[in-house]
Amino acid sequence: NAVHFAMTKLGDDYCPREIHTIESMPLICQWTLSVLNKAVWKTISAFESYKFSDASTVLYSWWQYQFCDVFIEAVKPYFENLSEFEYAREASRDTLWISLDTGLRLLHPVMPFITEELWQRLPRAEGKKESIMISEYPSVVEAWTNEGIEEDLEIVNAAVRKFRSLRPQCNENRRFPAFALCRGHHITNIMKTYEFEITTLASVSSLKVLVENDMAPAGCAEDIVNKNLTVYLKLEGTLDTETN
């Protein structure tokens, strides 16, 4: 599914290219390359230690929980509104290709046949080998590592999970207003910086960031992310008490 999504978004005219200005890319792209880099390091370390089950766990975790669940879902709006997000869309295409090319080569020792088939479908980079079997195995790219963004996204993803858990099952397709009560400048800056990603991943209609002295919103379900962050989802008037 990830390769199918990528092929529809890359288009027939996409030409893979090296990334030289990572700092200017959208934060979600920077995060994806950073966690991919960490997955490369962990996988190589596990193989060198003959811990094959650990390598499989790392690979599954990156593909399922980071690349598919977070990155692909976060960048979908870039491709839905073609009148906006032009630069973010191009950066997302580059990140898509790099992630799939690297991820498939990383996975190849565990799933040789399916990775060969999927890798052959990717746009061909200049100098690309004829087969994934004779391609270089991925190695760590120091420029991709960004521990700060990884730490920020841990908080963002935790908040997204809390927002999702607050959604009533009887209104799964409806988007509700969300609020984040932040204690401290650091957590406030994170929630404001990643407002777009949070509203996208949590499927909320809006996100209002509250600070420590603000009143908690009424008519909301709430949950605690950590000692510095409480999230609210406005559900007032959405439940039929007689039916539910």
Automatic annotation (TrEMBL):
Its EC number is 6.1.1.9. SUPFAM superfamilies: Anticodon-binding domain of a subclass of class I aminoacyl-tRNA synthetases. One of its GO terms (molecular function) is valine-tRNA ligase activity. Transmembrane segments: none annotated. It is an enzyme of class 6 (ligase). One of its GO terms (biological process) is valyl-tRNA aminoacylation. InterPro entries: Anticodon_Ia_Val, M/V/L/I-tRNA-synth_anticd-bd, tRNAsynth_Ia_anticodon-bd, Valyl-tRNA_ligase. Keywords: Aminoacyl-tRNA synthetase, ATP-binding, Ligase, Nucleotide-binding, Protein biosynthesis. CDD domains: Anticodon_Ia_Val. Residues 30-169 form the Methionyl/Valyl/Leucyl/Isoleucyl-tRNA synthetase anticodon-binding domain. Belongs to the class-I aminoacyl-tRNA synthetase family. This is valine--tRNA ligase. The lineage of its organism: Eukaryota, Viridiplantae, Streptophyta, Embryophyta, Tracheophyta.
